[in-house]
Structures are given as structure tokens and as C-alpha cells.
Amino acid sequence: GGEGTMIHRREPCVLTTREHMAGVTAVTFSPDGTLFATTSDDASAKVYLASTGSVLCTLRGHADKVSAVAFSPDGALLLTGSFDNTLKLFDVSSGGERATLTGHTAPVLTASFSPNGTTVASGSADKTV
User: pTM to 2 decimals?
Assistant: First the structure.
């Protein structure tokens, strides 16, 4: 990890974490609010316990900076998008990679699950969705 985690207990509660080795590019909370995930220019994503800021897992597999992140509606999967032009699906509980999605010809800038969790959408610098 990086320089560790500090939790400031004041209103509103502020969490500062320095676990990535490069800039943080995106952050999102799980649907139930118990977890949050970050992506980074260090080509990784991390999942944290929201109450403490403890890193639960580091997700690797992208070949370039990771720029987008989304939890599935049930919180079981994490979708990441990268400057390597791919998206990856990870299992949140195990940290294992479930799938790599291809098709973009430029960096993926945003990604999302449908409300029922059966479809994903992504936007890219190649001007496609």
C-alpha cells in the first residue's frame, strides 16, 4: 500500500486514503454503502470497507490507467474501464477477474450497469457507447 489511511471523525466524516501509487481517477460506493471502490493511473482498482477505509482487495489486470468504475446493483461485481480500451468485470468477494470486454478503440472513460444488473454500458474517447 501507500502511506496508509486516516479517518477524520468530524461532521461530515472525511476519509483520506493513500493506497494507490498514482492519481485516483474515480470513486464509487456500493449500493448498500458498506464498500467503496477507487481506480487509479497505477492501472489498478481497489475495494475498501467504507467504515474503516481498510483495503479489502486490489484488482489488477488492466494494461494502462483505470478511469471508470461501477458496482453492480447487487454489489457482487465491479466493472472497471481503462485506457487500455477494455472493461473488466471483477468478483467483489474474491477479487477475481470474471471477464474482459473489448470493442473500444480508444480509452474507456465511463461505465455503468443497468438497474437490473444484466447489461453494462461504456463510453470511450473513440466517440462510441
Answer: 0.85
